[in-house]
Predict the 3D structure of the following.
Amino acid sequence: MGAPGNSKVMLRFSSPAEIRGVALLMWNHAGRPADIWLYTPSIARHRRIAQQDRSAKFAGTDFSFEDLEEDDLSQYDYSEIQDAQEAGEACWRITAKRKAVRRSQYDKNWIWISKTRYTPLRMDKWRDNQVVRRVLMKKLEQRQTIWTPMLVEIADMAEGSRTTLELFSAQYDSRMSESSFTLEAMKSAW
């Protein structure tokens, strides 16, 4: 909910069984880190995720908390646009170097943007001159004229592991209330 850079996001997991009901609430802000809370149903409590814990893996997956935040596009310098291929599609590969303003576990990103769909297909996240995470956006479907990856795969290059996030539904421009994005709403079953 909200405009890019100032949005609110609620993620709630339905499977696997060991994380069913776990919720993540993010209030994104332009120019500063998001406020993030994690709700765990087994203890019926939420906790705020501290800035220094953003690089920690989320719920045993290969996604870090930072990977789930909305990126503030103004925090990058963009350069090195090159022609490339990804998943058989013609792309632009863009280098996005993080400005020193905001602390992050990543120095830069390489982003592959489809020339026909104008949507990211791949992102390599760099730290200390090596790729540490690779994000692949797959099974793109047009939902309300917006190309949406229904399958997102993230790989931890150092550990050789990967996690797949599958979306079963995506709906844009739905009317939602502010009360759906509160600490109290995290506890509610949907």
Q: What stands out?
A: Residues 18 and 132 are 27 Å apart (CA to CA). The chain has a mean pLDDT of 87.
